[in-house]
Write a structure and sequence with these properties.
about 150 residues, alpha+beta, Alpha-Beta Plaits, 4-stranded antiparallel sheet, about 40% helix, globular, magnesium, nucleoside diphosphate kinase activity, ATP binding
Length: about 150
């Protein structure tokens, strides 16, 4: 089933200059990039995005971190996109993230997590709508993908 997943490369990925490597890993899984935006998010947008964490002790630090430098907001689409992306991204805690996952290979500390990915198709749609207007999303499918994937 085709799904949409919102992915955000956070300031740590931007500052460490590993954005291209991360995008390459996602592309190699055959997912389609349908929207991308380099942006400096506002505290208000960060609070909306992470609203489910508002009462947690790390919330203020998380908002400060994601608003400290530009982020790369993206929308990816594909069959079972969310589950595939979550597996590729790995566990939130770098100590629990397996080698070969993005967090397992690149994350150093939970508080400085380098990537966010939607945890469900419903979250993917909600998060996408926070960062992108409908006309900014360009769905497409490579009609010849079966020949090279």
């Amino acid at each position: 089933m085709t799904e949409r997943c919102f992915v955000m490369l956070k300031p740590g990925a931007m500052n460490r200059r590993i954005v291209g490597e991360i995008i390459n890993r996602i592309e190699r899984k055959g997912l389609n990039l349908t929207a991308v935006k380099l942006m400096k998010i506002t505290p208000e947008l960060a609070q909306q995005h992470y609203a489910e964490h508002i009462k947690k002790s790390f919330f203020k630090d998380l908002v400060t971190y994601v608003t400290s430098a530009p982020v790369l907001a993206m929308v990816w689409e594909g069959d079972n996109c969310v589950a595939l992306m979550r597996k590729l991204v790995g566990a939130t805690n770098p100590a629990e993230a397996l080698p070969g996952t993005i967090r397992g290979d690149y994350c150093i500390h939970t508080d400085l997590n380098i990537i966010h990915a939607s945890d469900s198709p419903k979250s993917g749609e909600r998060e996408t709508s926070l960062f992108f207007k409908p006309e900014e999303i360009i769905p497409w499918q490579d009609e010849h993908a079966h020949k090279w994937i």
